[in-house]
Specification:
This protein is mainly β. 3% of the residues lie in helices and 41% in strands. The relative contact order is 0.09.
Length: 886
């Protein structure tokens, strides 16, 4: 049965799959090229000034050196900072942008990712628990940074005690402490262990098995279970104290034996120590233990006799200086408490992510800007959502607040907008008279700021719900309004997202529903835009569509991106030619959709990072773009929300850039377009700049049954072995990974174009990396879609890559023919909540690197409609794609 299905659909499969496969290559090539530049937003944090005026964005760790300098883990800002004894603050590590880079170089130029715990030794070396990078890093006294633990290769096997610390694979290292010999101890919060790094660079497990739980008090610490260990401290005798956070206790390791301090009030114990979230600990000069119990908002003092004192003082971490002063990390502040109990702030202004009003927008601080629009004079307005403000960038590049005082809440109607309270405003629109319209999302209102600067509510009475159609908009209930747009006639349209509807407010102030029936499966409305004929376009985010409403009550799909071309579209704009511009937040890209449905990426390489200013937008990095707007000069403005920036695309000629450095090359599975280790035989996509010909070249045959290893003067080598090429262009190459890499931990990849080396980089290797192409066929060979769903109990055909080694052995670039190779690892498929019967899983006839999977759908689906599909090869599960079942 499966063989007939396999062969009967082969011709259709070739057409459909070629369309789907090469569309993933071709849609990244826009008809127009843009340069990208940041116009608002920066990493400004108040360096080189008074520490009490600095921006600290949630302090998780602190430490004091022997001279009294204070070190701060500014966690959300991805920096480590130092406050001198004179009170001046500076950054000593981290650029302010999350990531991993810089080992072997200056720490100030390195990237950190959510640094937590800190420690400093007698020589002035600073140790960082770089939690987001799963590493312990060290800054030497001369300012250079290196990894001293973590970063090992999972493929190399489990870390063995006594081995090199840099070979270990950590999960989330959190807190640090040093013993009198200078050995480093740290808690691996998610790894359920506490480790010691010895001076010679090896590492030992001190406590924990790696499995969360509670066990073994009175027994071996390495056989005990911990439950998310956080705080850590070491007394003068070398005993290790652990804040066992989810077990709500402090545990002590002495001589390899673990016990609970105070036994949490258990009968017969000599003291009761009830903690709820111990995130910081330190010993004072008397040998007393102090505990920052952030879970209960108190500071606990346990003296050497076991007496406990609780102070109503909140802190995430604590440290003592040589004079007995206690420092407390408290959110956006670091406070100092003298031995006499006097407390005052030594670092942090209390402002976490807002700065720059009255100055250049390029050095301002933004906090998750979520929407952009512009007026006829060229001023740009944006919703600075996390700062609870609407801000304006004037034509001369200066930024000011035009609505919101920065405090979340609701107030101010009838008064000056800059004194009013907003609560997480998502979007802003402007009409021809200069009035602003704001979706005050968490207040469940739509508000208007007049040209004179006064604010009023125009829709919503402040309680979430759905009511009021046909009556006054201010008496209606709305739920989490999202985006807003205003027509030339003064009609205001907004996405009432919590109600899964688009509603309109007439000039007379009456509210009505324009689209949606309250079901998110029907409509998940976000971004809105109007074309020149007053047709409304809607970003239907959860359903990966762009919808449009023309006339009264008629909504149709303008573009269906469920095949992977759109991934959580948010803001939309449309030009006078009918070209749609989409902030595709899920792919971290900005895309255009022509009137004929052709998709092009004009900004973002798909990596959720920050890079590329001053260069080609298509190879730059965006992070969760949420909105776009167009100005009269053809420039495109982006709310690059995850990067806390507003960025501008300027139309220009094709941009020619130098060969990209290693870190700018993107390697993804060609089906999922997600990065990761690569597998033998997998089809991968490589993104870069100048890595192939300007005009894309498709696959070519070297022999009747084998793909060419060179096309368009482009070649890709894997440890010197050429890969079979499916597509080559200046910004993207699709290539099959040679089977010869099997068993390696990593592989060096080189790209040559016109006999010139364009890039060299290293990627990890894994046994399999399955992913499904967003193209599925029904039993009749037609593409699966919402208008052509699969039948329950029927056969559905998928195509995937990354299954790894096969039987018979795979041959690089060979087009599959009988007998068809099957993966060595077992294959299963899940559709929705049900396992599907796999009828065939093997090479797709006539293709190289492609696996065809035929499944029989279960007959009892509930519910029907769009359902996720995952493919498991061995123990590895693919990212989900969506099919429709009736």
């Amino acid at each position: 049965m499966y063989r007939l299905v396999l062969l009967d659909v082969t011709a259709r499969t070739h057409t459909a799959l070629l369309s789907g496969l090469f569309l993933l290559s071709q849609y990244v090539l826009g008809a127009a090229s843009y340069n990208i530049q940041t116009v608002a937003g920066s990493n400004f944090a108040g360096d080189d000034g008074p520490a009490v005026l600095a921006l600290l964005n949630h302090v998780e760790g602190i430490a004091i050196d022997g001279q009294g300098n204070l070190y701060i883990a500014d966690t959300i800002d991805n920096r480590v900072r130092c406050v001198s004894t004179g009170g001046t603050i500076r950054t000593i590590a981290g650029t302010g942008t999350a990531g991993f880079s810089g080992d072997g170089g200056l720490a100030i130029a390195a990237q950190l990712n959510a640094p937590y715990g800190l420690a400093v030794d007698r020589s002035g070396n600073v140790y960082i628990a770089d939690l987001g990078n799963a590493r312990i890093r060290k800054i030497t006294a001369d300012g250079r940074i290196d990894t001293i633990a973590g970063g090992g290769d999972p493929a190399a096997g489990a870390f063995a005690d006594g081995g090199a610390a840099t070979m270990a694979v950590l999960v989330s290292p959190r807190n640090l402490a040093l013993d009198t010999a200078g050995n480093v101890y740290f808690s691996d919060f998610g790894g359920q262990k506490v480790y010691e790094i010895l001076a010679k660079g090896t590492m030992l497990t001190i406590a924990g098995t790696g499995i969360a739980g509670l066990s073994s008090d009175g027994g071996s610490a390495t056989q005990a279970r911990l439950n998310f260990p956080a705080a850590i401290a070491i007394d003068r005798q070398g005993n290790v104290y652990i804040g066992d956070s989810e077990n709500r206790r402090i545990r002590r390791v002495s001589g390899g034996v673990i016990t609970t301090v105070g036994d949490t009030g258990r009968a017969g114990a000599d003291s009761s120590l009830n903690v709820r979230g111990p995130t910081g600990m330190a010993f004072d000069s008397q040998g007393d233990l102090w505990i920052a119990d952030s879970g209960s908002g108190q500071l606990l003092h346990l003296n050497m006799f076991g007496a406990i004192t609780a102070l109503p003082t909140s802190a995430r971490d604590i440290a003592f200086d040589s004079s007995g002063n206690l420092y407390l990390a408290d959110g956006p502040f670091v406070r100092k408490m003298t031995p006499t109990g006097v407390s005052f702030t030594v670092a942090g202004s209390g402002v976490t992510s807002f700065a720059g009003d009255g100055g250049s927008a390029t050095i301002a601080r933004l906090n998750y800007p979520s929407a952009v629009t512009h007026d006829s004079a060229g001023n740009l307005f944006f919703a600075d959502q996390g700062n609870h403000r609407i801000r304006k960038i004037s034509v001369d590049g200066m930024v000011t607040t035009v609505a919101g005082n920065g405090q979340p809440g609701f107030s101010g109607d009838g008064s000056a907008a800059i004194l009013a309270q907003l609560n997480s405003p998502t979007a802003v629109a402007v009409d021809a008279k200069g009035s602003l319209y704001i979706t005050d999302t968490a207040n469940h209102r739509v508000r208007k700021v007049t040209a004179g600067g006064f604010i009023y509510t125009i829709a919503g009475k402040g309680t979430r719900g759905y009511s009021g159609d046909g009556s006054s908009a201010t008496a209606a209930q709305i739920d989490s309004p999202d985006y807003v747009v205003v027509g030339n006639d003064g009609t205001v349209y907004f996405s009432d997202n919590g109600n899964s509807r688009v509603r309109e407010i007439s000039v007379a102030g009456t509210i009505s529903t324009l689209a949606g029936n309250g079901l998110i499966s029907t409509l998940d409305p976000r971004g809105l835009t109007l074309d020149t004929s007053n047709t409304l376009y809607i970003a239907d985010t959860a359903n990966s569509r762009i919808r449009k409403v023309a006339g009264i009550g008629t909504m149709v799909t303008a573009f269906d991106g469920k095949n992977g071309l759109l991934r959580a579209p948010r803001g939309v704009a449309i030009d006078s030619h009918g070209v749609l511009f989409v902030a595709d937040s899920g792919s971290h890209q900005v895309k255009t959709i022509d009137r004929d449905g052709t998709v092009a990426v004009i900004a973002g390489d798909g990596s959720p990072q920050l890079a590329g200013d001053g260069s080609a937008a298509a190879t730059a990095e965006l992070n969760t773009p949420l909105d776009v707007t167009l100005d009269d000069a053809g420039n495109i403005w982006i709310a690059d929300s995850g990067n806390n920036r507003i960025r501008k695309l300027t139309l220009g000629a094709d941009v020619v850039t130098p060969p990209p450095p290693v870190q700018s090359i993107g390697v993804t599975n060609a089906a999922s377009l997600l990065p990761g280790a690569i597998a033998p035989g997998e089809i991968i996509s490589i993104f870069g700049s100048g890595i192939g010909p300007q005009i894309g070249v498709g696959a070519q045959l070297a022999t009747a049954q084998t793909l060419a290893m060179t096309i368009g003067d482009t070649q890709v080598l894997f440890n010197g072995t050429p890969g079979a090429l499916l597509y080559a262009q200046a910004r993207q190459i699709n290539v099959q990974v040679p089977y010869e890499i099997a068993g390696l931990a990593s592989v060096d990849i080189q790209i040559f174009y016109a006999n010139v080396a364009k890039a060299k980089f290293t990627v990890g290797v894994t046994g399999c990396a399955p992913a499904i192409f967003p193209v599925a066929l029904n039993e009749d060979g037609r593409l699966n879609s919402d208008v052509n769903p699969a039948a329950r109990g029927g056969i559905l055909i998928f195509f995937a890559t990354g299954e790894g080694l096969t039987d018979p052995d795979g041959v690089d670039g060979k087009l599959a023919s009988a007998p068809y190779a099957r993966p060595l690892l077992p294959v299963t498929v899940r559709v929705g909540a049900n396992d599907a019967e796999v009828l065939y899983a093997g090479a797709a006839p006539g293709f190289a690197g492609l696996m065809q999977v035929n499944v029989r759908l279960p007959g009892g689906f509930s519910p029907s409609g769009p359902l996720p599909v995952t493919l498991r090869v061995g123990t590895v599960v693919s990212p989900a794609v969506t099919v429709t079942v009736r």
